[in-house]
């Protein structure tokens, strides 16, 4: 059985749907450990390792890096934080059906899947806004299109696996209204 006795929450949604923004608010209220798959990959890139260079090229194209890379990074980060974690927010993973299967097989079953749902128009608008300050190599019009394409290719397959645990949240609203709904799903987990 799993050695992990705290909640595991996957935080999903298209590029710019507000995964990171909502995770920050969840951390502030619930003290969960926030692990952003994208941040873990970007840290690997900053480290300047040969593997980092390969990852950077893939991310600049808006494509998915090999599953094993992300799964290893996540597993390492989870094990490191496990002794004092109240729960884990896994932000931006899984991005393909198989990635979810492998996570649950190799790390732990998931307790809750939050899916932030917003239109492409909204996503593009937010990402172009963030592009002014983010410094992210994938925040440009061309790569944003490819990120959306990658997301649209896989998302239905991913979330259709998690009917009972899936909470589909209208992410077109303001940050506070979205968070209120998020709280309604998290409060029961920590009660
Ligand atoms: N904003 C947020 N919420 C708002 C709201 N309700 N109203 C108005 N504005 C709102 O938010 C984006 C912007 O919108 C911000 O300016 C924010 O203020 C505003 P943010 O919270 O950053 O959205 P988020 O969903 O986190 O967007 P992000 O760009 O991080 O999502 P991606 O899924 O594109 O990026 P990620 O870092 O997860 O992945 C990057 C790349 O890594 C992928 O493209 C892929 O190449 C690679 N990757 C893999 O290959 N495999 C993985 O498993 C993970 C990543
Ligand atoms: Mg993010």
TrEMBL record:
Its EC number is 2.7.4.3. Keywords: ATP-binding, Cytoplasm, Kinase, Nucleotide-binding, Transferase. InterPro entries: Adenylat/UMP-CMP_kin, Adenylat_kinase_CS, AK1/5, P-loop_NTPase. The keyword NAD does not apply. One of its GO terms (biological process) is ATP metabolic process. Pfam families: ADK. It is found in: Cytoplasm. CDD domains: ADK (cd01428). One of its GO terms (molecular function) is ATP binding. It catalyses: AMP + ATP = 2 ADP. One of its GO terms (cellular component) is cytoplasm. It is an enzyme of class 2 (transferase). Belongs to the adenylate kinase family. This is adenylate kinase. It comes from Ignelater luminosus.
